[in-house]
Amino acid sequence: MRTYLDFEKPIADLESKLVEMKKLAENSNVDVSEAVRSLEISIDRLRHEIFEDLTRWQRVQLSRHPDRPYTLDYIEQMCDQFIELHGDRTVRDDPAMVGGFGEIAGQTVMIIGQQKGRNTKQRQHRNFGMPNPEGYRKALRLMKLAEKFNKPIVTLIDTPGAFPGLEAEERGQGEAIARNLKEMFMLRVPVICIVIGEGASGGALGIAIGDRVLMLENTWYSVISPENCSTILWRSWNFKEQAAEAMKPTARDMQKYGLVDGIVEEPTGGAHNDPADMAQRLKKTILDTIAELAQLTPEERIDQRIEKFCSMGVVVE
User: Fold this and answer.
1) Do 196 and 65 touch, CB atoms closer than 8 A?
2) Which sign, positive or negative, has the C-alpha torsion 200, 65, 268, 50?
3) How far apart are the first and last CA of the chain?
4) What pLDDT, in 10s, does the model give residues 268-308?
5) How far is CA 186 from the centre of its chain?
6) Which end of the chain lies in a sparser environment, N or C, as judged by fewer CB atoms within 10 Å?
7) d(CA 313, CA 311)
8) Residues β-bridged to residue 109
9) Banded model confidence at residue 36, pLDDT cuts 50, 70, 90
10) Full-model pTM
């Protein structure tokens, strides 16, 4: 059963009527084809109207939609073959971070990304998409493996943040993320980073240093979530909408400020409305970007990568 967000309620009402109308046609031999067609057109028109003028908070909500495709969903749709690799060779395997070699239209790539769960059991197994230090160390191990075999790296970012638990801190959460930042700057192969859902804090940044950093249209990328920002500023979650407007964390905002390199447009209604179409758009973007980056030497890519991130922000001496 499809899940609708609050602002999608008008669409839900019309789609409910459409289902009822089709059932009526099946049960009573009444020709309602014209009415069905008219209602479908109305639904498409309404969906375009709603999604053309979304607020920042509504885009944050879409990034967390329970039906939205996750990393393994995109891997299944995009890859002709995929071999998942496990473990950081130090502590254990972290199910919140997945990765392995995949073949996309004949091109072998290393795909790494955070993975959330669909139901309660899966969410607990995946730790709600919040990696531990061993997750980031696994990601770095796989990146180094890709570099060894001269294969491009694609990271898919979707996390509410790195796991903040005591055991994660004891095993060096900050050090693991910091090491990833340093090492990703120096990778000699093309690195493409794509925010497919939530891009929160260092948990996202730990796999987001690349030659091209892209965002899907209805995603967000920031040091803190709107709810936590609201809690700090107003001592309440009730001002999350105002916090989202002030933070400007959406893909359009990030591109405007030069913090990401591009936006991958989603199907009308969001990625969850047509996951297959979204996967094909992402696949084309990845292949086109790899072809573009292949024209540069490793030294040129590293120099441009460093320059890109060093030019972000404002420095006052």
Assistant:
1) no
2) negative
3) 56
4) 999 999 999 999 999 999 999 999 999 999 999 999 999 99
5) 24
6) C
7) 7
8) 102
9) confident
10) 0.93
